[in-house]
Each structure stands twice: as structure tokens, then as C-alpha cells.
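From the pipeline queue, job 12 of 40. The input is one protein chain; the requested action is below.

Action: predict structure.
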Amino acid sequence: MSYPRDDVLVSTEWLAEHLQAADLKVIDGSWYLPAEKRDAEAEYAAAHIPGAVFFDIDTIADTASALPHMFPDAAVFAAAVGGLGVSNRDRVVCCDGGNMSAAGRVWWMFRAFGHERVAVLNGGARKWRREGRPMTDAPTEVVTGNFRAQYDPALVRTVADVLSVISSGEEQILDARSAGRFAGTAPEPRAGLRGGHMPGACNLPYTDLLAADGTMKPAGELAELFRKSGISLERPVVTSCGSGVSATVLLLGLHLLGHRGGSLYDGSWAEWGGRQDTPVVT
């Protein structure tokens, strides 16, 4: 694919070759919207990549928040991933059973908590399964790891940060939701949210970055998608979506293109569209 920075994406072939490595940890971060009517943890228990452990983004989160799966503090994250057998020395590969958005969320969480040796499985568990690679229902034996987390707030933005970005215009905002939801012509999957988008935001549905087989599109196609959406790769980008999950696919694409200065609005539209004091454009 000739990406300028390909350190965050691994192929199914690569994973198959390295699956038995002692320092490799596979994290299944599968998560689905209620409308999809899929039970991520049950699906993991029934069949997962051998050695993978399940990462529940709704549990490894700030459970005191009324918003869905908000980032936990560093101590909570460190204890949780250590409990999954991950140590700071390990290489981590994130996957999911969908369109890489949940894997992207886990990938970005690891990065935000200071772990650079983390990548996403290109095409996810669906591609792995289509290729006839091994799956298992055997529970993964876990030896507790020693993980120390250092949170980088520059990678995760708050509603106050986004209001400041809108006011200053110094950073770009890129929304990963569908064009209809962005325009306010299609309903939000969560009840009670206003339709529309943030002032000045650009729109690039995250699924546009994926090829027919669920893998990331080549670098040239990705660059053209960002250009057509109105985004300059020379300036910082704050990504947003419904609840801070699919926006990470945009961050993955930006990273692959060598972009620096990407960040995630964690509350995303679940927060912005649910408030009455945040400006909305339709």
C-alpha cells in the first residue's frame, strides 16, 4: 500500500506469522451499536483469533460518566490492560469483527496512554476468517502484565477544547458520521440528539476509507479523500463521530499518510448533539 507511516497497520499474513511471539498481544475490541443486535462478548467467546483477549470499551471506561465509553483515567486503564496480560514491552495488535472502528478506538486508547507499540489488523477478524485462518472458542490463558500508563491529553479533546477550536479556527474538525447525519437529514441512532454538525466541520464518512474487502484503501486514494473533504494534511485535525469510535478510523488514515497533530473528540456527537449550549449547523 506504500503508506508513509505503516507502523500502525498489520496484515493478516503478518499476524499469522507472528501469532506465537511471546511479546505479541492480540486485543479483540469488538463493539456494536444496539441497532446492529450483535453481542460482541458472546461472539468473542464463540470464536476468536487464538490468543486474543477481549477488550470491552464500555467497561474500560469512565463508568461514572453519562456519556458512552468515555476515556478512563490512567490508573483504570493500566489496571485493566495489565489484567488482560499486556505489559509496556509488548507489541499489541487490535482487531474487531466489524469495520475496524472499534479496533481503531482501542488502538487510539493505547496511544493516548503512552503505548506506541500498537497496531490495527488490516481488515480485522472478518478478513482473517474469510481467509480460513484459525479461530477458537478456547479461553485465552492470561498472565497479568505490568502496564504503566501516561496519559497524553493532546490526543483526546473535550467539549471545551472543541469550542475553542471553533472559535480560533486554528485546527480542523473532521466528522466521520454519514453525510445524512452530518447534514441533519438522517436520524441519529441515539435518541434525544439534535441533528447536524459543528460549525466549520468537514465530513468524511469513515467507511469511505475502506476498500470492498474491509481493508484500508491505498495511500493515494486516502489522500484524495481527505483533500476532497476539505482537510489539509499540513494542519492539525480533531476527529469526531457518534461516540468517539469510528472517528479513530480517520485518525488511522491520517497517521498512515504521515499526518501529525491528530486528536479525538471523545464525547463526539453523543455529547455535542445532546447539549443545548453547543452550536449546531444543519
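Job complete. The first helix runs from residue 12 to 18.
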